[in-house]
Amino acid sequence: MDQAQATGSNVTASINGGAGWSFDGSSGGSYNFGALDALDGKPVDGATVEFLFNFSDFSGSMAIGAVGGDSTAREMNVFKLEQWQNTGKFGITLPGEVDYSLQADSVFDQDLHVIFRRNDDEGTIDLFVNGAYVETHADKGDWRLDGGWGYIGSSSSSTQDVPTGRVYGVASYDAALSDQEIAALYNAYNGPAADPHAVVTPAALDFGDYDSVVGPLDLAVTIANYGATENLEISSVLVTGVDADHFSLSSYPSSVAPSGSVELMVRFNTSAAEGTVRATLQIETNGANRGSFEIPLTAFAFEPLPEKAALLVINPHPDDEGLFYGGTLAYYSQVRNLPTVMMSMTSGDSGISVSDPADRFLREDEMRNAARAYGVKYEPIFARFDDGGSSIETLETWTQFPNTGDDAADYLSPFTGNPVEYTARVIRKLRPEVLLTSDSGGDYGHLDHRHTSAAVVAAYAMAADSSVTILDDEGNPLPAWAVTKFYVHDADFDDANHLGHLFHNYWETPYDELGGATAREVTQQGLLAHQSQNIDYVTRTYYGQAYWGGQYEPGELWSMLESTVGLDTFNVGELSDDPDFDNFPDIHHGDFMENIDLSLFAGYLADTNRDGLVDGDDLTLMLGRLGQEVPIGSVASGDANSDGIVDQRDLDLLHAANPDTDNDKLPDVWELAHFSGVAAADPAADDDGDGVSVGDEYVAGLDPAVADRIEFSIGDAPRAVYFTVPAAGGTGYAGLTRRYQLLYSPDLVDWSTVVREGVADGALQSESIPEDQPHGFYKLDLIVE
What we know:
With 785 residues, this protein is an alpha+beta fold. Helix content is 15%, strand content 29%. The protein has 5 domains: 3-191, Jelly Rolls, CATH 2.60.120.200; 200-300, Immunoglobulin-like; 311-590, 3-Layer(aba) Sandwich (Rossmann fold), CATH 3.40.50; 606-700, no CATH class; 711-784.
């Protein structure tokens, strides 16, 4: 293997098996992988791992291509290529941390060239088989192959993962190789690639934060033909998705000559955009290696702070929000879809050079980027109190505030710059149901952490005290607000002043809302935004490691300081997927929202159409009057909720938001279109008695009030399976696609054979049944994504 001749990237490790190491399914071998700095989880340019192998398919074994680790003591420090027997798919495993479940079918008893490419900028992993791109997967964890001695054909502590077959070589690279370089590597072993050979770069376009941008933003996409003789024909280029109207395209030629390329400019028009904007650039070609390309388009702007927050998280410095508070922000912002606000008491400026004024708030920018990664919709609040004695004049100081970490009982004193009054003002403005901060011990004794805890404890009382006047930015008095529940991250677990203890039970579970990742894994990606700290970050869970060798209480462990709705339920012996669970068996296992009335956040209390009415009120007024006081036929020009916007535009805006306030996987607008209210729709019920649950009716595009089914039959002339699956369209499907898989089973047990899959378009589909196929069974699996 002479990779240096095929790519300009540094080959950080290469092991050559020549004719191949042979494995019999029972024993492996150890080899030196060399230094592989690109896989240590730090924000680098990416990494690539290359495999050449031939595996045999045999019952009862997972076939492993390569396993690496620097010692038998670090079982987490491994990277495995798999061809899973039970799924027949390629895969990657980071043992003890995460599985990457890919869709590409495994191939046995053939020489294969397989590459996994990690794209750190996009947070994705690409799979290439025999030089051709196959699929992309969201990056869910660190590649921890740090170099040194590793293993081929087995893990360090077990032989259960040994393949049967041959491994010819393994190589690693310190960068994300280009499609062209990957094709060249394959060509070096297997001859020329398919012609015409289509390559489109980059894999995604991120227009970044456009909040302060005036005018359009332009980014380029390159369409290249790596083929040697045939022209690459470009048959279609278009932008699709709910926000497609915000993008426009430059002109482009209809073909690309061999070894040539063309540039396509994508323009994002910022003037009418709000919040996070998403669309997809679809490119169709006659590429023999790959014809279709889908390029995600994203642009980002923070939304205005909510009228009411479900959760207010107050941390001492930028990065503490992830280091100590675990998966809080990702879980509540994305999985629970609740308005969650971040606030940092300092800007983390201590130790940062101030020779350039632009550097003073560097860590604020990093925290904004982290917030985006966590999925938080709102810009973090920065109180800008002094960070550990910094002398930056533009920052407030913790004036007249005790530096001993006491509870600051003198919060009534009228002084300027007081952190208690500042925090109490934020609480009254946002009216959070739940408040989180550090405990009185300062997590690990840090003075700023202790000050933060004391300030928030005192502010909690001050905000609720109606005898204290606090003015808003316009000089108007803010009404008193009593936070419903108040928790602290628990380093003082045995503090007698705590009402009860909570083990947060939902941060080690993969969620669809997080792209199949866990809340902790998303937090890990957000922490990478804090680049100025130059630290190998690990979120604080029980098994997490401290970045300077200490060990703190896990991010799942919290104590309740105050509650107006009673104590959390005490549960013992509850099953949990969280690996930390068994270490804390005698406390409540749940989340912060127990006993909180989440109907307060119907429609997120957002105002999607900016009409002065929150979405929940818009929907209630509109659906309550349409068809009764207001004729349905007037929707194109009527104004049922009297907001000055015609009903059709209201419905379009609310439909595009697709809120799911009760977190039951059914969009509110779909529930309201078919039921008397959001709460009236039970996903598990079968209201129309047709044998299909309400949840499945939504996925299939059926009417939950009508006994209807997907058209599905087997015909004899010709012998084929016939089916019709409606396209995803209408109320509740904004920006979504319905996909199907036709599966075959010989025995109603093994459904691993995928006969056909595609995007549902409402057209009649047919799949011929082979004449020599034994009797068996067919079924359709549907998803909406």
